Amino acid sequence: EAAGRELGGAACAVIRGLGMEQEAFEVVLAGGAFQTRHLLRDAVDETVRALAPRAVLIEPRHEPAMGAALLALQLATA
To answer: Which of 5, 27, 37, 77 is the most exposed place for a label (fewest CB within 10 A)?
Structure first.
């Protein structure tokens, strides 16, 4: 739980820095620790949503390599 609060605090620092406290946005929980440790995920969720209640925590839609390829394609066609 303490680790989840720390991770949530780091996300909150970014959210504050971007002024997104009232925005609706997704927070992607990447990494194997989130798949098996529900206490970690719950603590991150609680911490983030206390600051940004419209934030939604999600799991990655693709593997990291797929995301990198999509980003490269997007940049190449821009």
So the answer is: 77
Question: Which pLDDT belongs to residue 32?
Answer: 81
Contact between 54 and 14 (Cβ < 8 Å): no
What are the tens digits of pLDDT across the range 26-57? 999 988 888 777 889 999 999 999 999 999 99
**Cα separation of 64 and 5, whole Å?**
24
CB half-sphere exposure, 62, CA atoms < 13 A: 8
Nearest Cα residue to 13 out of 51, 60, 56, 53: 51
Tokens standing for residue 73: 């394609």
Q: What is the pTM of this model?
A: 0.78
